[in-house]
Amino acid sequence: MNPRPATVREPDPTGVLSPISRTRARTRTSDLVYGELVSAIRDLRLAPGASLSETEIADRLEVSRTPVREAIARLVDAGLVHVVPQVGTRVGLIRLPEVEEARFVRESLETSAFEAACGTATLDVGGLRELLDVQERSCRAEDYDAFFEADEALHSEIFALSGYPGAWQAVQRMKLQLDRLRRLAQPDAASIRTLIDEHRLIVDALEARDVDGGRTLISRHARRAHDLAPALQAQYPDYFVE
Fold first, then answer.
1. Which contacts of 150-157 are long-range, i.e. CB under 8 A and separated by 24 or more positions?
2. Domain map of the chain by residue range?
3. How many CB atoms lie within 10 A of CB 149?
């Protein structure tokens, strides 16, 4: 990815959040609110340092203030939101040590998942090939949100093929800071092409059960976004904290 000015929406919760859908009867409203806010923080709809208002969020999500208050408390506990005395509640800045830790966890677990998948008795990469096709279409359409979704799905599928799908959920919980960095980089068509080519090589190595080759490819792939951190920090100093 090549860093360029990111298209980050204004940090106004009333403009970037969508009403909560209560389709799952047993899911608490506060959990749905929490999930929506985490998603908005992850993909920079709520930018680092954005001010948060319980009232505005509740109005936009069409819920009461109580589940919003509960969700924000959880976000504070998770370090994603900070309450600054006499200033207010704000989205946490991107912490580079956490980015590096997320890179380490992702690289370690995904190379292990790749090796485990290579050792399974039956290995069907058809789903991965379909996701590569989705990525190709997203690239042609310059639909980067769709690309990110298909990118995540491809890596999730590798963990599923390994027999350890829950490990991907552990990675997801760890890598929010890394995902924000990736979003901030705002890839263009050329860098998306590079990522797709790397994905294809990883899938080819998996199909060939090439453990050593696949581990090398995944390690290089996992470090790509992290390598952009210094340039992005220089470009967006207000979004980062050491």
1. 151/195, 151/199, 154/128, 154/199, 154/203, 155/110, 157/127, 157/128, 157/131
2. 13-93, 95-235
3. 16
- Cβ pair 150, 131 in contact under 8 A: yes
Mean pLDDT of 34-52: 94
Note the pLDDT tens digit of each residue in 51-66.
999 999 999 999 999 9
Whether the pLDDT of residue 7 is over 60: the answer is no
Residue 227 DSSP label: G
Which band of pLDDT confidence, cut at 50, 70 and 90, is reported for residue 190?
A: confident
* pTM for the predicted model, two decimal places: 0.84
User: Does the pLDDT at position 225 exceed 70?
Assistant: yes
CA gyration radius for the chain?
A: 19
Residue 223 phi, psi (nearest 5)? -90, -5
Cα separations in angstroms, 65 against 62, 108, 188: 9, 40, 39
DSSP 8-state symbol, 206:
H
Fold of 13-93: Arc Repressor Mutant, subunit A (1.10.10)
